[in-house]
């Protein structure tokens, strides 16, 4: 089992924690990780882009000049794609870009990222995190003590001070918060370090093992 150091909010070591190999010690699958990122980005697209084809633009009902004898090339409509103001060839239409991944594939991709973070020493476990009131200054001090640049803080849903932590981290551009059941591959890759509370680490093992 992978063993990682546990820190307190002052940035000092407070013991160690053994992590399950079924979640934090798997062989990374780069293909599934890339597929999960592609799915995340595709699902964010609105798919509302639209342009008109020659049949949808207004005007152009009359043939601009007769077929022969003018010296011009033959033309059937002033709204053909080669004319200014004409329709677009193969115009984009609203569509749904999202696609599905199997549940086991999603789990394997997430475990791959978590395992690679452990191997790169980019996974930090803290004893706990509590705040009496939402205060960005206090939360920034915790981030500074842990020497973090860009980080994802994973906190359990039943944490009493979760709302205060979320509000405190909201104004920090390089920090986001998430629950164990809402973490995704894209965010874990985008941010350098994953910070887990001990309870969050245990919940992740229960959800994804």
Parts with pLDDT < 50 across at least 5 consecutive residues: none
In helices, the fraction of residues equals 25-40%
CATH level 1 name of the largest domain: Alpha Beta
| Named CATH architecture of the largest domain | 3-Layer(aba) Sandwich
Over all CA atoms, what is the radius of gyration? 27 Å
How would you name the CATH homologous superfamily of the largest domain? Answer: Ribosomal protein L4/L1
Number of domains: 2
Order of helices and strands: EEHHHEHEHEHEH
Integer average pLDDT: 92
Secondary structure category? alpha/beta
Write down the CATH topology of the largest domain: Ribosomal Protein L4, Chain: A
* Total DSSP E strands: 6
Number of helices: 7
C-alpha end-to-end distance: 13 Å
Q: Which strand order do you get reading across the main beta sheet?
A: 2-1-3-6-4-5
How would you describe the shape? elongated
The share of residues in extended strands comes to 5-15%
Largest sheet, described in full?
Answer: 6 strands, mixed
